[in-house]
Amino acid sequence: MDYDQSYRNYREIIDEHLKRLITESEPAGLYEPIKYILFAGGKRIRPTLLLLACESLGGNYKGALNAAVAVEIFHNFTLVHDDIMDNADLRRGIQTIHKKWDMNTAILSGDAMFAIAYKLLSQTKSNRLSEIFTAFSQSAIEVCEGQALDLELETKFDVTVDDYIKMINKKTASLIKNSVKIGGLIADGSEEQILALENYGLNLGLAFQFQDDLLDVIADEEFGKSIGGDIVNGKRTFLLLRAKELTKDKDREIIMRVFNKDGIDASLVPIVKEIYYRCGVIEETQNKVKFYTELAVKSIEDLPKSRARDMLIWLANKLCERKI
Amino acid sequence: MDYDQSYRNYREIIDEHLKRLITESEPAGLYEPIKYILFAGGKRIRPTLLLLACESLGGNYKGALNAAVAVEIFHNFTLVHDDIMDNADLRRGIQTIHKKWDMNTAILSGDAMFAIAYKLLSQTKSNRLSEIFTAFSQSAIEVCEGQALDLELETKFDVTVDDYIKMINKKTASLIKNSVKIGGLIADGSEEQILALENYGLNLGLAFQFQDDLLDVIADEEFGKSIGGDIVNGKRTFLLLRAKELTKDKDREIIMRVFNKDGIDASLVPIVKEIYYRCGVIEETQNKVKFYTELAVKSIEDLPKSRARDMLIWLANKLCERKI
């Protein structure tokens, strides 16, 4: 079986487990939106990574399924609350919960998803439960801190590339890092093995976020991403913050207009895109994606050879080409 | 030392432990509101009950401090999010977080408090960690379900006393029940002892909520509660729902105006209050408070005699007279 097929299988196993677990229906005002978002077709990247991490250290994926689903539900909770804060209308091509229902429903169903995630995690059989809970909770705190930093980033004038790195470290990389760590803990791996997985997850998370910023600018329209959304919204991505450092004169003026969200519309997208290429920030970001992906792959090189480990390597490369 | 003094001591221990633990300050947009609400002077009822429950089964309260503080932080998280949903301006005499800052800050600092609560719980030393986490998570889910039922209760026409009981069972009683259960689990009590504590907590929680509804109508102004707030807001309390069943003719018309939030103001409060007395719902509620308090006390009668057990009994009586 090739890796693409294996990945589809993992997704299916995760989806089925989710469906088996989320059976409550009352109060409907709580569980309808929860099912709506959970079954809107996520890529299940974090739970797949968790299962693979567990298997790569010799564990049985079945013992990690509750934890995998917990991580996915937690991730969806953050999406629901982030969408309120960002006032987003759409998620995965469908209306966000606060648009389809209302804000109270979105706050409360998010909170309940957070609680459900922990309940499922509690059902994990492991003699390292305390470490598992600490990792999950530490990550949950960091995701909140990362979101607070992100909100700060969008409003403060004095923002640097360093602030951005700190933010994505917490908002994006932390949950991926701790997902693989939890997989390793369930497999009862050694300290060094778990450290290897953490390194893999952290670097993969960073690569993933740089790639996300990049795709907004250079993805093909057919890929399904609308091009230049970040530019039009003046979102302070790595590209924008780094271009602010690299440009001068007329170019910098345009970059500052984006930075200050000052009269930008779609007509500016090709101009900014050209500046990004010219000042070298596109290449720099591509190099960062490559660098962090390689670091991720290298981190788990010394783990015992197994199909799961090789699939983690495949998945890192795949994710950062975004072919899936 | 008398029980009043003991209770003050427990509160102090809890406050000090909270202060020792919540030391983060960055990002300020996240931690300032968290400290603001946590140190606004709560009564610390739930963590005190948790510590006493632990001691009543022979445990050392020090081993239960992290869990006690976790329960208090979780409770405060629910207040922050409930205040958004209820659009409340004040809490404990100070501005609510979404009023003093903004809604995003209130959503996010609430989420972070939830995560911090779990992180502290993870630091509890116990060989029954899985049960502790399950109890805490089950309670968190029920609190969300209870809040969803409460929102439903306020908008549906066809609402009964039974819907109300179901709601307070989840929204109020569940966390009190599970707080004492967790205390008992940390002390590694027997199944029967823990069941006794759960029964105590559940019934105390119910008594507490009935008393809360009652106080809105009959408390002295000097007690610090504004009288009749629930009536003016058309809040569907036990008193209102039961009066709807008990009244007829002109009285029922007035009760239905409150129920339908139809042109009610402060001038109606003494009239509704008189109806409540006349139809017997005041006495009925007082009897319920007494009934559930006695049930709570009786539930732990067979626990080994100890100062902690006796203080749990004292606290139940005290809370339901609301002298503290």
From TrEMBL, chains A, B:
Transmembrane segments: none annotated. CDD domains: Trans_IPPS_HT. InterPro entries: Isoprenoid_synthase_dom_sf (IPR008949), Polyprenyl_synt (IPR000092), Polyprenyl_synt_CS (IPR033749). It comes from the Bacteria. The keyword Transferase applies. Pfam families: polyprenyl_synt. Belongs to the FPP/GGPP synthase family. This is Farnesyl-diphosphate synthase /geranylgeranyl-diphosphate synthase. The lineage of its organism: Bacteria, Pseudomonadati, Candidatus Kryptoniota, Candidatus Chryseopegocella.
